[in-house]
Amino acid sequence: MSVFSGVTRLAANRHLDSASEAALIEQCRLQNFEAFGKIVDAYQARVLGFVKRMCANTEEALDITQDVFIRAYQGFGRFDGRCSLRSWLFKIAYNLCVDRVRRNDRHPTELRLDASAADESETIDVADSRWDPEGMILDEEFQGVVELAISTMSDKLRTVLLLHDKEDMGYEEIAETMGIPVGTVKSRLFLARAHLQGYVRKYWNGETVQ
Amino acid sequence: MNSEFEEKLKREKGLSRDEQIRLEMALDSREHAEIRSWVGELTDEDPSLAWRSALNERLHAVRTPVRQPKMRWRWASVMGLGLASALTLTVYLVGLKPTANPGTTSSGEKASVEANLLAAHQDGLSMLDLGTGSPAERATGLGQQNGSFSEVDLGTL
Prior knowledge:
The complex is a heterodimer of chains A (210) and B (157).
Chain A: E1 7-10, H1 18-29, H2 33-55, H3 58-75, H4 85-104, H5 115-120, H6 133-151, H7 155-166, H8 171-178, H9 182-204
Chain B: H1 3-10, H2 17-27, H3 30-40, E1 45-47, H4 49-62, H5 69-96, H6 107-129, H7 135-140, H8 142-147, H9 151-156
């Protein structure tokens, strides 16, 4: 079904403060469409980023991200507020990714993030006129290495790394989201960082990373 | 970190108290903080407007309208008012309906009419006994016609 042109803009910083988020949640429980739209605005880029890194296929990631918000909209009546809205959305995203991975019988080592192919179709709006092209290229290249390293680790390690280091979720929050003990979250986080560090070391030493 | 410890972490087996502390310290180290910053600085991109538009369409499709409680009360009061009006109108129309059939009168009214008729009849009889017509007969002149004989009548006898 996807005929989307993919992602086109760098995500704007649209974090909601807790008071306005709580007000939006109350309205969303009554299926207020406009309030839900604001929540989508605030979280769409982060959820898409997470899902893209989890399933590696951009078109599939766009579909899954839509499903995340559809499920959230339909299930808002059951959102009891015991966890944060962010945790709840990422839990839905995580479960959908796991379902999709199971369905596709995907093996982590088989898929690689094809950074060059993905970059060709994207245009990036640069709002800051003081940008440094050389620095940006290096940053992009380094980010590509980090993305590649993330894409080659197992789903278990990747999920913990992204939720903790990218989304700033706590150990307990991640443990609750994934349904695993806190100690396991810490172990996986350590291993994920070790995996990433190994890739970056190779890159710095001039070795080819793939 | 030695490889033996890493292997233990990979197997996800329980760690001793010392190993847990060792793991905590490693996760909080500067080295790990730097790795964390690499991941944290990865950029996320907004999906396209076409994607958002498609999402809105799907959300509209799954949307189930929820009636506001205030609206429900408003409808209930309107319905109640209508029902009361209809009831009042019905009672009023039934009250105006003419009673063409005497059989449809109430038993109380019926008894009263019969009592009056009976009283009038007895009054009339007593008047006849006394040789005077009843007030009704006197008013209509029937009593004279019925109670006294004319000369023609006498001649025929």
